[in-house]
Amino acid sequence: MKAALSTEHLTVSYDTPQGLVAALRGVSFTLFQDEILGLVGESGSGKSTLALAISRLLDPRRTQVSGKVLIGSRSLYDLSSSNLRHLWWEDIAMVFQSSMNALNPVLSVKDHFADTFLAHRPTMTRTEIRKKTISLLQQVQLSPQVIHSYPHELSGGMKQRVVIALALALDPKVLIMDEPTTALDVVVQHSILAEVAAIQKERHLAVLFISHDFSMVSGLAHRIAVMYAGELVEITKSALATGHSTPHHPYTQGLIQATPQILGGRVRIQGIPGEPPDMSKLNPGCAFWERCSQRLDKCQTLPVPPQNTHTFIRCHLMDSSSSDFSSQSQESQGSSESNGSRGSRGSKEEIAHGR
Questions:
Q1: 350 near 189, Cβ under 8 Å?
Q2: pLDDT for res 341
Q3: Which of 2, 107, 141, 205 could form a disulfide with 111 if both were Cys (CB 3.0 to 4.6 A apart)?
Q4: Cβ–Cβ under 8 Å, residues 26 and 32
Q5: Nearest-CA neighbor of 233 among 69, 65, 43, 41?
Q6: Which DSSP letter does residue 352 get?
Q7: Strands (E), the chain
């Protein structure tokens, strides 16, 4: 598989009154062509910061960035401003968090698309722009008549579809979607996910899909990356994401146990005790140490070695004994395993076909 996007030891620190505070800490991963990689984690774990850092959209006056971001073979942070402008939306595009509020209220839908095309492809005629705009709207299941509408005339789901179509306007190779279904009802959410899956498959896009919803992401993505306190603690194949006999990082186990399961017998929903750590006061060891029910003495003080393979679990329990870790994982998830439930998620095929 060929890499569409990769990061190497990506670190982002914000300038605060208390000094520099790291929001991302040595993040390394690879997103392959024709793949959906889901990214999950609690609020404040660094997901949106990662998306902005990958797109080089962070304010350099208030942040410090180190490490590498590669789009194909090109290093994003080595590009000049003019080259970066050409790369945005043509090679990498982004659907922002709360993107329904990103549309200009005084511009019609067709004007939004015209601005995008004329900024990047000034030789396009108005007829070509109109034809391309209608085609994009139809790809996200919107009527051609929507081009005459203003944002206030559209429902939340329609505005979200317009924003997704705008992100696809210049045929990017990499698409970052930062919680694109937030604030939408379940029916509209499922419809948009089906469209995302269909578009990704048709265009062979590399998609980084960011969400809080572990169950939803496990039904959409090919692999799932789990982020905690600015670090990737696990990357797993989606087929194994809710497997109760599969070893997981203790934080991933907590996310699985906190996910309601529609199918199967009765299970107890368990939250993760405690609160995310203060990023300005992290201990040198595992950031999840204080909340972990399986912690070892060394977890607080000994840093967890970085990894950058297709799938991994960054945990000292894996170092001590894989078999012990597997048995502890099964024991902590025993109530769920006894029901043999697949959970509330559907397969990628079910999402793609709207089932």
A1: no
A2: 39
A3: 107
A4: no
A5: 41
A6: H
A7: 3-16, 19-32, 35-40, 63-71, 74-75, 92-95, 174-178, 206-211, 223-228, 231-237, 312-313
337 found inside a domain? no
Q: Are 132 and 117 in contact (CB under 8 A)?
A: yes
Q: At 327, which amino acid appears?
A: S
> At 252, which helix (H) or strand (E)?
helix 250-257
Q: Is 328 in a helix, a strand, or coil?
A: helix
Residue 242's Cβ-count burial label (10 Å; 0-12, 13-18, 19+) is buried
Same domain, 212 and 64: yes
Task: State both tokens at 293.
Answer: 């029910």
Q: For residue 322, tell me if it sits in a domain.
A: no
Per-residue model confidence as pLDDT tens digits over 17-68: 989 999 999 999 999 999 999 999 999 999 999 999 999 999 999 999 999 9
Residue-wise pLDDT for 62-111, tens only, equals 999 999 999 999 999 999 988 998 899 899 999 988 777 889 999 999 99
Note whether 156 and 247 are same-domain residues.
Answer: no
Separation CA 345–CA 333 (nearest Å): 17
Structural domain total, the chain: 2
Domain housing 13 = 3-91+172-313
> Residue 86: how many CA atoms within 13 Å on its side-chain side?
6
Select the more confidently predicted residue: 346 or 267: 267
